[in-house]
Amino acid sequence: MPALNVCLLGGTGFVGRAIAARLAQGGHRQRVPTRRHANHRDLLVHPGLVLVEGDVHEPSFLRRQFEGMDVVINLVGILNSRDRAGRQFERVHVELPGKVAQACEQAGVKRLLHMSALHATRDAPSRYLRTKAAGEEAAHAASPELRVTSFRPSVIFGSRDGFTNRFAGLLRLAPGVFPLACPDSRFQPVYVEDVAQAFVAAIPEHRTFGRRYDLCGPRIYTLREIVAYVAELQGKRVRILGLGDRLSRLQAAVLELAPGKPFSRDNYRSLTVDSVCAEGANALRGVFGVMPTPLERVAPGWLTRGRTAPR
């Protein structure tokens, strides 16, 4: 693949950093918008990467950043909305993808990769999943000249993730008993490097134009199994107390009022949908030739007792 100009929205985040590293290895030039240039100067170690300070929700700013770009990648997303009405979900997951697609058309960009979520549908129980579905549709509603590919991963793990590391932090504070909402919810977690590899591999592939791909890891776990594994790696002896539906909803209602909103009622509703690929639907190996990485192969590197995740 020849060197390309890529604008990476969400490039300062967990998945974005993995994609930025792969793009740099391939010799591609990158433009990464950020609200605060000073906070992400470590990304400048990648040759050809430029940080641009600005607001990605401003259409004129998007158009300027997309000028001269061969590819735009949109990874921007949130797990919770700061307002109770969920307006932030609409702004980030629905309105922004529409603005991105429009700005691509205006700037003459021909390739757009979009991050969605596994089982994002219009009738999903959570606002997170419903707005992810609407944003995916907004991206694909662009003119045929804009070749769009969407990715729908299960929960993504890696040394900087907000999933295994959050449970590791909570477990360290647990006084011997760990109350866990929705313990039987099922996940097929996928490694961040595998996701990044799929994104980069899709850029030149004509067969991926207009397609939407589910991305999952090699194994299905219940939430209880994942938390127990994290506790084992931490050397933490704790009893995991699985909560029933009523107590799970109550925990969500209480914790969404806590600083940082570690768990919310919308998160609870998302957990009622198993984050698992349908049989034969995992595109990692079949489409992109990526052998999915097991959680057990890499998680000890950042979760083993005495280690801390990089900041």
Brief characterization of the structure:
The protein has helices at 14-25, 59-66, 87-107, 127-140, 164-173, 192-202, 223-234, 245-255, 265-271, 283-288, 295-298, 300-303; strands at 5-9, 29-34, 49-53, 71-74, 111-115, 147-153, 156-157, 177-180, 186-187, 190-191, 212-215, 221-222, 239-242. It has 311 residues and is of the alpha/beta class.
Protein model, in words:
Pfam families: Epimerase (PF01370). Residues 6-208 form the NAD-dependent epimerase/dehydratase domain. This is Epimerase. The protein contains 12 helices and 13 strands. The relative contact order is 0.13. The chain has 311 residues and is of the alpha/beta class. The chain is globular. The chain has a domain at 5-158 and 190-216 and 277-293: Rossmann fold.
SSE map:
Blueprint: E1 5-9, H1 14-25, E2 29-34, E3 49-53, H2 59-66, E4 71-74, H3 87-107, E5 111-115, H4 127-140, E6 147-153, E7 156-157, H5 164-173, E8 177-180, E9 186-187, E10 190-191, H6 192-202, E11 212-215, E12 221-222, H7 223-234, E13 239-242, H8 245-255, H9 265-271, H10 283-288, H11 295-298, H12 300-303
Parallel strand pairs: 1-2, 1-4, 2-3, 4-5, 5-6, 6-11, 7-10, 8-13
Antiparallel strand pairs: 9-12
Helix pairs in contact: 1-6, 2-3, 3-4, 5-7, 8-9
